[in-house]
Amino acid sequence: MLFSAFVTQVIPSTVDIGLTKNLKVECLFSRDKSSPLTFLTSLTLSHSESKIEPDYIDLLSINNFDSQINGEIQKNPNIQVFGAIDNINKSFLGIQWEYPKVNTAGAYRCEAHGINQMGKPVSEFSNASVNAIYPDTKQLVDQLQKLTQHVELLQHAVNATEAKNNKLEKENKQLAELVTQTQEQMNLTTKQLTDLIQRTKTDPNRYINAQNVLFTSSSEFNGSRYLLTKTHGNTNYLFSILTCGLLGGYQAEIDSAEEYNFVRDNLLVGTSYSAVFVSGTDAAQEGVWVHNYSKTNVKYFNWGPSEPNWGQLENCMAYYRSQNWLYVDISCDTLYAFDSSVAFVCEVPQKI
């Protein structure tokens, strides 16, 4: 016949005062259908500092009626208590000390109270003991060495973190300076271009001459001319939109194979640019390409192999020389770098 398993478990059974981090004492009760204690009503955990002549004092108790753990000892902030009564599975009641002191040693007793199948009271008891020792000099030295090594590792980690933070602060400062310089350069270039266009608008010949200095112009195609920037090292994405607007146009909106081929064959072939931006962005919705000026959907695509790729990291459209001037999606920030290998194309409708 199988009877209930009722044990008092202590982990560890011997504590080194000042070195042992935790002491756990737990009453564990489990049963099957043949157990004489068929219904558990309460568990009690008691302690006696003396193991020779035990004088047990109740530490904790739990009952089946309200499932509350009772005991003054649980008010100690260095102690954790836990417990539950489950008449179907397992029941338990326990306590855990953090860095247990010598008074936690001694004898422990668990009591299980309930009724049997006849409805009569039944009790079971289980005992265990905990020994306490004081560490010797060697143990203390070993522990001190471990703590010293741990502190050194932590200090190395702190130093490494501080070094990374200092590096990030330096990089952020450099980036802020670069942004300021870039903005100043863009503002200056924009002002110069605006002044130039305003001065030349009253004189068509001067306007055309100034345009030819800054751009390579195509012949007319479907009522528009296409202008490829000649300036190197002063191009960025917003500036390209502004420049095209000042010229009376916009970033080239390529909407057919014929228009695509015209721009490529008349402006791009033979140049040294690596990428040439045209209108088209999917920044608002990934995969939905929209023209910057007209806000209409891009109608024509001629992507290179495996393009577009990189998702939200690349939201602008450009001809790409290394792919035989097929389209790629490219980071809009590429133009912010004032890269002399990058250019853009404006589309300027011709007045009739």
UniProtKB/TrEMBL annotation:
<feature type="domain" description="C-type lectin">
    <location>
        <begin position="221"/>
        <end position="325"/>
    </location>
</feature>
<keyword id="KW-0732">Signal</keyword>
<dbReference type="InterPro" id="IPR016186">
    <property type="entry name" value="C-type_lectin-like/link_sf"/>
</dbReference>
<dbReference type="GO" id="GO:0030246">
    <property type="term" value="F:carbohydrate binding"/>
</dbReference>
<protein>
    <recommendedName>
        <fullName>C-type lectin domain-containing protein</fullName>
    </recommendedName>
</protein>
<dbReference type="InterPro" id="IPR016187">
    <property type="entry name" value="CTDL_fold"/>
</dbReference>
<keyword id="KW-0430">Lectin</keyword>
<keyword id="KW-0175">Coiled coil</keyword>
<keyword id="KW-0964">Secreted</keyword>
<dbReference type="InterPro" id="IPR001304">
    <property type="entry name" value="C-type_lectin-like"/>
</dbReference>
<dbReference type="GO" id="GO:0008083">
    <property type="term" value="F:growth factor activity"/>
</dbReference>
<dbReference type="InterPro" id="IPR051663">
    <property type="entry name" value="CLec_Tetranectin-domain"/>
</dbReference>
<dbReference type="Pfam" id="PF00059">
    <property type="entry name" value="Lectin_C"/>
</dbReference>
<feature type="coiled-coil region">
    <location>
        <begin position="144"/>
        <end position="185"/>
    </location>
</feature>
<dbReference type="GO" id="GO:0005615">
    <property type="term" value="C:extracellular space"/>
</dbReference>
